[in-house]
Structures are given as C-alpha cells and as structure tokens.
Amino acid sequence: MKKIIHTIVGFVFIWSTSAYADLTIQIDQSSDNAVPIALVPFEWEGKQLYPPQSMASIVGNDLLRSGKFKAVDESKLPSRPKTLDDIDFHQWKQLGVDNLLMGRVVEDPNGTYQIEMRFIDLLRKEQVIGKRWTGISKSLLRQVAHKMSDLIYEELTGIRGAFNTRMAYVTVNAVKGKKQYSLEVADSDGYNSQPILRSSLPIMSPSWSPDGQHLAYVSFENGRSQVVLQSLDGKSRQIIAKFKGINGAPAWSPDGKKLALTLSKDGSADVYVMDMKTRKLRRMTRNWAIETEAVWAPNGHSLFFNSDRRGQPQIFQVFLDTGEMRRISYVGRYNANPAVSPDGRYVAMVHANNGFHIAILDLYNEEFNVLTKTYLDESPTFSPNGEMILYAMNQGGQGKLAVVSVNSNVTQILSVQEGEVRSPSWGPYLPR
Amino acid sequence: MFAFITRHPVSMALAIALHILIAIGLVYSSFQEEDILKIKLNGEASESEKMPIKQMQSMKTFAVDSSLVKQQLAKIKQEEADKLEAQKKLKRQSEAEKRRLAELKQEQREEQKKAEAERRKTLAEQRKAKEAKRLAEIERQKVLAEQKRAQAAKRSAEQAKKEALLAEKKRQEAKKLVAEAQQKRQQEEAKKKALEEQIKQHNAEKKRLEAEALQAKLRQEQLQQESALQRQLEEEEARKRQAAKQKEMLSLRETYISSIAASVKDNWRTAAKVSDKAECVLSITQTPKGMISSVNVEKCNKFANEQFKKDAEKAVYRAEPLPEPPIKELFERHIKFIFNP
Amino acid sequence: MNKLKLLVVLGVVSSLAACTGAPKKGEEADMNVEPVSQEEVDYAEKARLELEKANSGEVNEVEVLGTGATGSDVSSEELASQDLNARSQEVPSMGQTFEPVIYFGYDQYIVDDSSMEIVKHYATILVDNPSEKIQLVGHTDERGTPEYNLALGERRAKAVAEAFMLYGVSKDRIEVISLGEELPLMEEHNEEAWAKNRRVEIKAQ
C-alpha cells in the first residue's frame, strides 16, 4: 500500500514568517505493519484559547516519520481520557489501538509552561511512561514534544529515539536574481530552521562537533574553498584551513579533538588530520590520486575515505596508529562519500550504477544493498541512533533531502518551499 | 576314555582283532609262554587301556583246558626253579600294577561320577517315553544274554581254575594277587563297557527324544501362535477403535490450541528490530470466554530479545478474546504453545 | 591586445575588491560574531550596497549568524571578493575568437588538441606580457559527490596549467582554483548542460 501523506503543511503556513527555510516533510510510504497509537490532544490551562504548540501533533508526526507507527485520526478518537481511570479499555480494544498518549500543558503565571505526559499500554492496561517538565519556555515546547517522542520510541522499539536532534543543511535561493547560499540548522522534523551563515558563494559539507555546539564546513566566500569552524550561536568563527589548492571535507573525530580534512597543498587531494588544539596537521594519505571525504570510525581509530587510486572512486580505510590501508568497497565501479553508522557496523556510500544511489555495506557480513531509488543521491548521513540515513537528491530539477530507513522501505522527502536544499548532516544526540 | 573309544572305533576293532590273533598263536605255542605273555598282554592292556576283559578270560580258560594238564607234570621241576624268579618279577609287576590301578581307580571314580550323572539324566528321560523303555529293554536283554554267556564262560573257567588250584595250589597262590587285581580291573572294564553301551544307546535315544520333543514343541508353538494371532487381531481391533477415538479428540485439541496460536500470530505487530528466528513458549491462562487472566513468556531461544518478549505478550492481549474450543470439554484454562511469528 | 587590456582591467577590480574585507592570505581569520537582528541585517544590506558601489563590480556577501537569534546586540560583517562567474561571462562578449574555456569529457581531465589551441593562444599573450598572471578555475558537472568533484575540478585546472607551462608560461604566474560542481554554467540536469559545466575557465588574476 503506497500512500502519499502530506503532513505539517498547515504548520508551514503558520511558521512562514521567520521560517521560509523550514523543511516540508513528505512521507512516501507507510508500513502496513505500523503499530497504531492514539494521541489525545493535551489538556490546556492557560490565558489563551489554544496552547502555543500542539504537543500530540508534534509527537504524532515524529512517530509517523519513523514508518513504524500510525496515529489514530483525531476525529476518530472515541473518547479523550485525562487519567488512567478514564480509560475504557474495551473501547480502544475494538478500535485496534495498542497505545495511548495523553497529557497536559499548563501555563504558569511567570509565563513558563508545565508539561505532563502519560503513555498507556492499552493491551496490558498500564501506564508505561509518566513524565513532567516544568519551567519550560515557549520556544522549548517543541523540543519537549520531541523528547516525548524519543521516550515513546524507546519504549516501543528498545532503541533510543532520535527525534530530539538537529540537522544542518545548505539552501540555495535566488534573491534579486542572485544566488544566496544559507547554512541552516533545524530540528529533525524540519522546524525551527535557523541560518548560521549566509553567503553569495557556495557553502558545503557541514560537519557537527560531537557536542553539537559547533559546525565545521567549507565556504567559498573568498573565491576558493576554505574550511571554517563556527559555533552554533554564531559567537565564534574561525577559518582553520585556507591552504593553496583545495580545502575541504571536514569531519570531526568522535572525541572532538581532531578534524579530518582534505587538502591539496602538497600535490593532489589528500586526507589530513588536524589536531584541534595545536592545529598541527598529519598527512594520512600520499598518493597522486584524489583522496577525500574522510569520516571517522566511531572508535576514532580509523578513517574511511574515498580514493580513486584504482582509477575510479572506491572506499578505503586507513588506521591512524599504523597507517595501514585497506579497500572496503568492491561492488560496482564508483563508490564515494562514505558515512559510518554510529555502531560502526555499516558504511553508507554513494554508489553509481544506473545513476547515483545510496548503498549500504554491512562490515560484519559484507552484504551490500542499494537503499535508494531517487535521482542524483549523495551526501549520506546517519541519524545518531543509526536507524535512518538522511541524504541529498534531486526531484523535478530541484535539490531536496530525503530520509530512508536502514531497515525498512520508508522514505520521506524534505524540501524547502523555494529553492534547493543540499549537503545535509544529522547532528548528535542532544542531552536527554 | 569312552570318548576315545567311540572316537576311534576302527583302531579299537583292530586292537581287538590283533589280540585275538595273538591269543590263538599263544594257544598253539607253549603253556609257559602263554603265562608270561598273558602278563605282558595285561601290561599292555593296562597301558593302552584297550584290553577287552571277556576275551582275555575265555582265552585263559581255553589255554587251561587244552595244555595245562598235558605238560604240567613234565615240566614241574623246571617251574619250581622258575617260581622264585617269577615271584620276584610278579612282585615288581604287582607294585607297578598297584600304582597303575590306583591311577585307574581315580580315573574310574571320576568317570563313574560323570557316568552316574549322565545316567540319572537319561533315566529321567527314559521315563518320559514308552518307546524308549521298550528299546532299552531289548538292549538290556541283549546285554543280559551276553552277560550270561560271559558268566557261563566264567563259571567253566572257575571250574578249571579250581582243578588247577587243586593241582598246584602253590602256583595259584602266587598268582592270586595278580588274578585278583586282574579280576577287579576286568570287572571294572566290563562295567565300563556296559556303561559305554548304555551311554551310546542313551545318546541315540536322547537324540531321538529330543527330535520328538522338538517336533511336539513346534506343534505346540504353532498352536499357540495361531491362538495368539487370533487374540492379537482382536486386541488390535480394539486398540484401533480406541485410537481413532483418541485421535479425534487429540486433533480437536490440536486444532483448538493451534487456532489460539494462529490468532496470536495474526495479532503480532512489532516496531522493534527482532530476529526472524526468535521464538518463545507462551503460557496463557484464560477464562472460559477466552479472556486473558495472565500471560507468561518463557523458554525463549537466544534470538528473542526483551522487545520481542514484550511484543509477544502484547500480541496475546491483542488476540483477546481467544478462540473458543469446538467442544466445551476441550477448554483448557492453561495453554502453552511455541510462538514463532 | 584589446583582450589583454580587458584582462588587466578586471585584475585591478578584483584586487581592489579583495582588499575590502576578505581576510588576508596566510593568516587565520578569527571573527567573533554576534547573532543577527533585523536592524543589523538592514545595516549589513546598506553596507553591502555601498561596497558594491565603491567597487563598481560584483561583491560577495557573507552573513554570519547564530541559532540563538533572539537578542538585539547583533552585528555582521561584509566580505567581498571577485565574482568569478560574472566576469568569465564578460570575456566572450568582447568578440573573443577563443572562448577562454576548456571543456572536458565525463570524469576526464585530458586537455585535447582543440583545447591546446586555446591554451596556446592565451599562453602567447601571457608570454608577450610578462607582468600578467592568470587564474585557472576548474569545474565539474553535478554528478558525483561534491567533495570528489572539488578535487576533480582542481585536477582539470592543473592539467590546463601543465599545458600553459608547456607553452612557456611559468608556474608562478598561474593560480589554480577549483569550484567543483558548485557554480555550474547551466542549471539544467541533462547531458548538454553537464558538457558545458565540465570546464576550466581562464581568468585574469
């Protein structure tokens, strides 16, 4: 069963004032096996008629995007219980609903909010999650909702949710007939997008620091490629690599102490590792070939990178301790732009075979699978729980982002209202 | 020893024939030589243990009858001189003979024991069959006739001996030890021979009886088998009827349990990452209306993670009410089955 | 000589532009930038327009912002340098016999014979004018990964640089730059557009 579900469109209009770069998410496919969940609109106690955010809707859209759950249509809810005692289990049973979310949002006199959630297992007839947040500012309400989604996801799947995370991406717009590039940071559902850099010349390859507070990226603001380090709050910005030749492909080490990058200052493009404290460079590859797009193994002991030393781009691995090198990808003639899953088991890459697609290599059993069917797919990046891959693609001549589930066929497409979006990078877990 | 004899009938016959020839030869030769030879022959016999006693006795009798009287007086003096010599010899010989006899006695005692055991066995068998008795009677008469003949011969020999003893008491006295020993041995041998014959007959009889018994047994067995077969067929028939009944119930029960398992399987849904190979035993307690009182997830294999167990339990609740049994009697409050979605 | 004059003029403009705000080569630019407010953005826009006017040419603008953009104490900085794309389009408009662009096959960086003619033409001008310097800007089509294409663009520009050196232009007069797939000449997604986009542009420095 294929369904095109346009979600959140309404919100896009509401938010259109400050958020023209917000992403609209379109879910391509929903799984038949999705577990139904009842999301009862939260009780509201406040001065206004309506709460500033609909918590239940935010959670519903989060869970829907996972492809594993489906929300019961609000109009079809048989009742709106407020406590466990209100629940007529038989009623929900007939509806075939397994779980129910209910809660309250209370506006305190000081202008902050109290949020309470209860997640009920209707089959076992018990509350499985109960949580309250207090002193929450208006701007953090969405984040609280994403935290709820994470809790529910973990309860139902055993895997930590990655809804309360952010992503960085680059948008390209024509402003007064001139291109404008913008490096944006948004919530995982595409909301709260905020630019951290705007430029009339290209920006590419953002990479998150492990603490989620900085981005390294490539900017052409001076007419050539440079690697820039910037804090998310915009208070600190440094150009850390502007050597002769190209300066590109920054990748933060898992401990945040090093940065891998590509420089061609000594000849052809090679992978280097920069010590972030001393800024000293260590050359990891020496080859006439192009060696670039390095990413770190989660243990920080090795790098996966792209090298065309065999004539065509293929993925190699180099160990920092020994300098030992080995080839990783063998399927097909073109494999580039590796991304390593957080558990270190999978390497996603851009695989060319009848077009460019995202493929995934299981390092445990060498299984190789092409995951995507879209056009000009590139720049894969894993969600911090390893369940999803975010990547860039092209649809109808427009650059868009897409999210594919590693284990199922669920694909969502993220697009901006105008212009293009590219170079995605999924940020780390935020503190719980 | 009997075994030896029976095993070598040809050599036995040859030995007997040879001895007869020698005896005849001796009869035509001198009386003195006969005596010495007789001892020698006895010695040989004791060595080879093949000497037939009856023939020896009749031979001796014959010798006394024909020549002893004729030549005795003429040669009496010579014999007197020889007497001492012979006495010495006899003494030596008798000593050797004693040892031999002791050995023989030992052997014979053993043989007797064995024979006795055999006899008891065969006698018991004899009583079992008339036919055997009759045949044994015939045989016994034969043996008796022979014994009579032997006794007659013995009597005449004794007669001759008495005359000879009267004539030369001294020589007989000297010979007494030898004769006694000889007699004893001869008696033993006769007994042995008789026993041998008996054993032969008993063996043959035994074989025949055994064959008959086997025949009877086979007949008996056949009969038993036939009746057993009959019984078996009847039992099987009954069993089949019982099994069919049970099977019907069993298959109904199976159908009932598997309908519950299928209903749970139909309600399996998971958002978690679980292995295809995961399986657990689900232990469910239900009310007669199929409402769930409790669910226990137990005995899971290594592929079943915590999330699988959780979702298996939920599948049971989702399946509530569980399907009812086809017959009320089949309802089971506690149900267990392997769940492998 | 007409063409060369044009190149010189453009060179002057670009060096002027480079002086206005771009961090100087060889030093790391540490900039502490506050989050943006609307007033500041307006100010930035004004400053940008002024700079544009002063340079009478194209200006690149860079706005540094932050995610915590709620405060009012915000400043921004304008950065300007040459717009390579715009100038490269001016050159053929002067009736250039040889378009200062070398094209390449897919995933290729071989300078073919007809391209060597173009190189020879500009190399001759450079040899005649020893004070002039050039930039070789490499580009790729959109296919393939952006970072790999950045390196591939450089490889193409270096191949053209080798060709210039063959015709007697010394290495220190050539600057090699790559823009990868970032600034295509044609925005379409077809073979024709891709063929136009796989190029090295020869520019005055």
Q: In this structure, how is the largest beta sheet of chain B organized?
A: 3 strands, antiparallel
- The mean pLDDT of chain B is 78
Taking all Cα atoms into account, the compactness measure Rg of chain C is 19 Å
Could you estimate the helical fraction of the residues of chain B in percent? Answer: over 70%
Shape of chain B, please? rod-shaped
Annotation field: number of helices of chain C: 6
- Known CATH architecture of the largest domain in chain C: 2-Layer Sandwich
What is the averaged pLDDT score of chain C? 69
Residue runs with pLDDT of under 50 for 5 or more positions of chain B:
30-63
Structural class of chain B: mainly alpha
Write a concise synopsis of the structure shown:
The complex is a heterotrimer of chains A (432), B (341) and C (205). With 432 residues, chain A is mainly beta. Chain A has four helices and 32 strands.
Task: Write a structural description.
Chain A is mainly beta and 432 residues long. Chain A has helices at 9-14, 55-65, 89-95, 141-157, and strands spanning 5-6, 23-27, 35-39, 43-45, 69-71, 99-107, 113-121, 126-136, 166-175, 178-187, 194-199, 203-208, 214-219, 226-231, 237-241, 247-252, 258-263, 270-275, 281-283, 291-296, 302-307, 314-319, 325-327, 334-340, 346-352, 356-362, 368-370, 375-382, 388-395, 398-405, 411-416, 420-426. The model of chain A is unreliable at 1-19 (pLDDT under 50). Chain B has 341 residues and is mainly alpha-helical. Chain B contains 8 helices and 3 strands; from the N terminus they run H-H-H-H-H-H-H-E-E-H-E. Chain B has a 3-stranded antiparallel β-sheet with strand order 2-1-3, covered by helices on one side. In chain B, a hairpin with a 5-residue loop joins strand 1 and strand 2 (292-298). In chain B, helix 2 (9-28) runs antiparallel to helix 3, helix 6 (130-167) packs antiparallel against helix 7 (169-266) and helix 7 packs across helix 8 (306-318). Chain C is built from 6 helices and 6 strands; from the N terminus they run αβαβαβαβαβαβ. By secondary structure, chain C is an alpha+beta fold. Residues 1-57 and 69-96 of chain C have low confidence and may be disordered. Chain C has helices at 2-20, 38-55, 84-93, 113-128, 146-166, 191-197, and strands spanning 30-31, 62-64, 101-103, 134-139, 174-180, 199-204. Chains in contact: A-B, A-C. Chains A and C meet through strand 11, strand 15, strand 24 and strand 28 of A and strand 1, strand 2, helix 5 and strand 5 of C.
